[in-house]
Design goal:
The protein is mainly beta and about 180 residues long. The chain has one helix and 19 strands. The chain is globular and about 45 Å long. Bound molecules: coenzyme A (COA). The site of coenzyme A (COA) has 18 residues, from strand 18 and helix 1.
């Protein structure tokens, strides 16, 4: 895996986390248990801090960055879809970020909320727990309860990525 210290800022990565060798982790970053980080993800804690909670997944091409002196906090069992850009302050437990979503500096995602594919979350948007926000700029779409079919699907993704933190180290082989 490509992990860089930056001066005295040294990433703290749980042993059970899986960071793909083509992902990049820099500086003031904390990554929890069974977190999966896919190829081409960039988690860059150079001027601000980034924390990622247990059993979350960061999919291909996701960019996570933080402003000077700020923390980008990502809770437990958060699903972050391909190519999302995360500059938010806070993403609560069990939230989901759709593919290509853009979370602007200072935005906050409530526990269990879903930011839809390709949404743009403005910092002034107040997200509430277990609701979906979609569009550009993102607006409330509908509620997102525990038994919602889309939530059941996303919970399946989260479980599957947790499983992959165990299987990838055993079965992934570079062939070139
Ligand atoms: C938001 C989401 C859950 C909606 O799913 P759904 O309830 O099945 O919604 P539907 O497809 O029936 O659409 C309902 C309405 O929302 C709109 N809508 C759905 N997704 C939207 C999106 N990403 N942006 C804007 N509007 C959207 C639809 O156009 C539709 O509008 P209408 O009622 O005016 O026709 C789904 O589109 C989504 O973004 N899922 C995220 C998946 C994810 O996290 N992926 C990561 C994969 S690893």
């Amino acid at each position: 895996m490509v992990v860089y210290a930056l001066g005295d800022k040294v990433p703290e990565i749980a042993d059970s986390a899986y960071i793909h060798p083509l992902a990049c982790v820099i500086g003031d970053v904390k990554i929890g248990e069974n977190v999966f980080v896919a190829p081409q993800a960039s988690i860059r804690g150079d001027i601000g801090r980034i924390e990622i909670g247990d059993e979350s997944n960061i999919q291909d091409g996701v960019v996570i960055h933080s402003d000077p002196g700020f923390v980008t906090f990502i809770g437990r069992r958060v699903n972050i879809g391909h190519n999302a850009s995360i500059h938010s302050e806070y993403i609560g437990n069990n939230a989901a970020i759709g593919m290509g979503a853009v979370l602007m500096v200072g935005s906050r995602v409530a526990e269990g909320a879903l930011i839809a594919n390709a949404a743009l979350l403005h910092p002034k948007t107040v997200t509430e727990p277990y609701k979906i926000y979609a569009g550009v700029p993102a607006k409330y779409l509908r509620d997102f309860p525990e038994d919602d079919p889309a939530r059941v699907t996303i919970t399946g993704y989260v479980d599957s990525y947790v499983e992959r933190t165990r299987t990838y180290p055993r079965v992934l082989r570079r062939l070139d």
